[in-house]
Amino acid sequence: MPELTGENISVSLRLVETELVRMPSFRASLEIAFLYPTGKMTYSSDGLWFGIEDWERLLISLESGDAHCEVSDLSYDVTLRFSGNTQRINVVIRLRRRMAGVGEGELNLHFGESYELRERALSFAKSVRHQYENLQ
Question: What's the confidence (pLDDT) of residue 129?
Answer without folding.
Answer: 92
